[in-house]
Write a structure and sequence with these properties.
Layout: H1 3-43, H2 48-61, E1 66-68, E2 74-76, H3 83-86, E3 89-94, E4 100-104, H4 105-123, H5 129-151, H6 158-191
Antiparallel strand pairs: 1-2, 3-4
Protein name: Transmembrane protein
Keywords: Membrane, Transmembrane, Transmembrane helix
Organism: Hyphomonas oceanitis SCH89
């Protein structure tokens, strides 16, 4: 091999190493962005989404508790004004039996909440710091829901009660699953 060929091969090897170094650095940046998103996803309780949706409906479209009747008298409602909205149809589907199956808006919110509760329980199987923060934020969400249920008239519905119960189950199940997972991880590490 002559001297020029050796220099060219050495230059190609150096260029290849620099290219690999740049690719590794670029993948590290994308991993850092992905890590940040995973941490945010781990801390953020997904049940916030249906609770915020219910809050938007209750505070924006719920209606007033007190109305004026035809005689001009002030009448206070005994049920939550949002019930008409929650019991309204969200979707109709004809069944083979000949009847229409109707999903109400309140039922749709609960269906979304059940899916998010399932995902929250799956997230709680990890034992990291973000999981513990998630449980704390979930507990705060439950406390906010409890205060709303007790004090605000548009939140005194069975739909919101079930939603609030799901936030409590998220806290309880999450803590239990995390403790069992941590105990199992600790037990495996201790036996090895």
């Amino acid at each position: 091999m002559n001297k020029d060929t050796k220099i060219a091969l050495a230059g190609a090897a150096v260029a290849k190493m620099e290219r690999k170094k740049r690719e590794k650095h670029a993948s590290d940046d994308s991993n850092e962005k992905g890590y940040f998103m995973r941490v945010i996803f781990g801390i953020f309780p997904l049940l916030v989404i249906p609770v915020v949706l219910y809050n938007l409906l209750a505070l924006g479209f719920g209606g007033a508790v007190e109305t004026v009747n035809a005689q001009g008298e002030l009448v206070r409602s005994t049920v939550a004004p949002i019930l008409n909205l929650l019991n309204g149809p969200f979707m109709h589907l004809p069944m083979i039996s000949g009847v229409d199956w109707m999903l109400t808006k309140g039922d749709a919110i609960l269906l979304v909440a059940v899916i998010f509760l399932f995902l929250e329980i799956l997230k709680s199987t990890s034992t990291g710091t973000s999981t513990i923060i998630n449980h704390a934020v979930s507990m705060m969400l439950f406390i906010v829901c409890l205060i709303q249920f007790l004090l605000l008239p548009n939140f005194a519905t069975s739909t919101f009660f079930i939603l609030m119960s799901m936030t409590l189950l998220d806290v309880l199940a999450g803590v239990v699953v995390t403790i069992v997972s941590a105990r199992r991880d600790f037990g495996v590490a201790g036996d090895v």
